Amino acid sequence: MLTTFWMTPRLYEPHSIGNVVNIRFLLVLVGLVVSIGGCGRKSNLPPLAEVTGTVTLDGEPLPGMYLQFVPNRSAGTVGPPAVGQIGSDGRYELRTAGQMGALVGSHRVKIVGYYLPSNPDIPFAWIPKQYSDYKTSGVEAIVNADEVNEIKIELTLEPGDTP
């Protein structure tokens, strides 16, 4: 017996309303399973609090620089550092391990910059070397729990500081 194409049983009929509904149901089911699977995941980070602010050198913003809040172990703050980029207006916001905020507690701060002479769109800012090491910067910050911490960092040039 010769069977024609239209008589062959098919698992998927592209124009069948029932199959479209089944495919939609399957997609919704997969979406639910994936979203519920992520809900129970907990971070291994200690508590974080939102940190924003400004960084200036003698009153001028430091665009393109990066700052890092390094937890102060001697004050009991332990965990990964928080990092943020300083925008053209001097503003920054910190992230820790991909999450918004910094660890609650005491931090020592360092500020570093990278100058790419091949890219004139990135402004160059210079700061004294002491600020690029949290041990010598002299900049400290306290991050308080359950609030948005607005931390203004004002750096100054000392006599003898040169680029």
Poorly predicted regions: 16-21, 25-30, 32-42
Structure classification: alpha+beta
User: How many distinct helices?
Assistant: 1
Main sheet properties = 4 strands, mixed
CATH superfamily of the domain at 48-155: Carboxypeptidase-like, regulatory domain
Q: Please state the second-level CATH architecture of the domain at 48-155.
A: Sandwich
CATH hierarchy class name of the domain at 48-155: Mainly Beta
Task: Indicate the CATH topology of the domain at 48-155.
Answer: Immunoglobulin-like
C-alpha Rg, in Å? 27 Å
Q: What is the mean pLDDT?
A: 77
Q: Tell the overall outline.
A: globular
Distance between the termini: 91 Å
Number of beta-strand segments: 12
Question: How would you describe the overall organization of this protein?
Answer:
This protein is α+β, with helices and mostly antiparallel strands and 163 residues long. It has a domain of 108 residues: Carboxypeptidase-like, regulatory domain (Immunoglobulin-like), CATH 2.60.40.1120. It is built from one helix and twelve strands, in the order H-E-E-E-E-E-E-E-E-E-E-E-E. Strands 2, 3, 6 and 12 form a four-stranded mixed beta sheet that branches. A four-stranded antiparallel beta sheet has the order 5-4-10-11, with no helix packed on it. Strands 1-9 form a two-stranded antiparallel ribbon. Strand 2 and strand 3 form a beta hairpin. The longest helix has 23 residues. The protein starts with 16 loop residues before the first helix and ends in an 8-residue tail after the last strand.
